[in-house]
Amino acid sequence: MPDVLFRVDLNKPMEEQETPGHNRWHPDIPATVSVNPGAVFRMECKDWTDGQIANNDDPSDIRDVNLNRVHVLSGPVWVNGAEPGDLLVVDILDIGALPNSEWGFNGIFAKENGGSFLVDHYTQAAKSIWDFHGIYTTSRHLPGVKFAGILHPGLIGTAPSHQLLDRWNRRESDLVAKNPERVPPLANLPTSHSAVLGKLKGAEFERIAREAARTVPPREHGGNCDIKNLSKGTRIYFPVYVDGAKLSMGDLHFSQGDGEITFCGGIEMAGWMDLHVDVIKGGMAKYNIVNNPVFKPGPVEPNYTEYLVFEGISVHETTGEQLYMDAHVAYRNACLNAIEYLKTAMGFTGEQAYMLLGTAPVEGRIAGIVDIPNACCTLSIPTSIFDRNILPK
Fold first, then answer.
1. If residue 167 lies in a helix (H) or strand (E), which one and from where to where?
2. C-alpha angle 156/89/18, rounded to 5°?
3. Cα 63 from Cα 265, distance rounded (Å)
4. Do the domains 307-385 and 4-296 match in fold?
5. Gene3D superfamilies annotated for this entry (predicted)?
């Protein structure tokens, strides 16, 4: 087993860990450990909510979750010799659940506290608990379903430079200013409430907490991309913006559907990751990887070959308004069509079907993006995850 460079105690919040991690992005958050290029090591991670969700049938913890706390991340890891302009090469060697924590959760956030992709259709909180059985998972809250997971970090990225951080904050502030009273908000701006910044204290903590970006969205450095195929065997090329790169990770998922549509998205879990790192000097300019990471997926994923595919087009689902090439609306319609079908085929409630689409390894696609005025998106559900034939008969 590789050396464990970051350990977590699941009974303690992140700021009380022996080595605290962080839940904001800022170049001045100090690294917790340093490694040389070529190093192989293990990082343990808490679940993204920092242990706020319990293994029970009560969704009130989803409803009342403190979203200023998320995401708690392990790191940063300083990679010796990495400089701005380099590429940080990260190989995901393996991922697993922590001992005595072989379960995960999924949830629908309430509209007034987080919301979700289908927030106007599902406004109230709901929760499903998933038990792990080797590579498979089942849930007492979604009977008749069993599938293989594709474990991955929902969130992994390098630290931003001061210039990049300023750019994030300006553009997201401008977005919020367009509709500052919107629920849920258009973006989550910096706040010191519930910030965790490693071992920083006092005035330096307050300064960074006021400036640091929230971890909620993906950005140029990677971050919360929630890509389900970023799994075992994947190699990622991250732009380096600060000395040491300052790599951090967390938000581990046992499984997830494309889009992570419930927001409390895949099957959230505490776990560990084995990583290998290296550096390509001057790699950003050499390969023109300057705006976002690039990755080569690994060879490990569930072997599902038969799907039932649902289509959606860019016509508003409630008003009937024709929208122009709106892939967001088209994918929403594909998801809503699948939910309505599963309510009949499996006897699920809408909430159960919605959570299934967030957790099972469903495939989302932009099928057509040129045939005006309708974009077409598809959602493909593997049929063998069900204990019965769900095809129309």
1. helix 162-177
2. 45
3. 14
4. no
5. Acetamidase/Formamidase-like domains
In angstroms, the first-to-last Cα distance of the chain is: 51
Domain ranges in the chain? 4-296, 307-385
Question: Angle formed by the axes of helices 327-345 and 350-359, to 10°?
Answer: 120
pLDDT digits (tens, 9 = 90+) for 281-311: 999 999 999 999 999 999 999 999 999 999 9
The answer to whether the CB of 241 falls within 8 A of the CB of 164 is yes
Q: What contacts 319, CB < 8 A, 6 or more positions away? A: none
- Alpha-carbon distances, residue 358 vs 42, 291, 295 (angstroms): 28, 28, 23
Integer angstrom CA distances of residue 369 from 223, 257, 260, 307:
27, 21, 21, 22
Mean residue pLDDT across the chain: 97
Q: Give the whole-angstrom CA distance, residue 211 versus residue 198.
A: 15
- Decide: 245 and 88 in contact? Cβ < 8 Å: yes
CATH topology of domain 4-296: Jelly Rolls (2.60.120)
Residue 38, Cβ density class (10 Å: 0-12 exposed, 13-18 middle, ≥19 buried): exposed
* Whole-angstrom distance, CA of residue 199 vs CA of residue 301: 38
Describe the strand order of the beta sheet including 271-280 as a list of residue ranges.
4-6, 40-45, 271-280, 87-97, 235-239, 294-296
- Say if pTM beats, i.e. exceeds, 0.90: yes
The CA distance from 189 to 308, in Å, is: 39
> Which of 78, 77, 72, 54 lies closest to 64 in space, CA to CA?
54
Q: Which residue has the tokens 């550096």?
A: 279
| CATH class, 307-385 region | alpha beta
Sign, Cα dihedral of 282, 287, 290, 293: negative
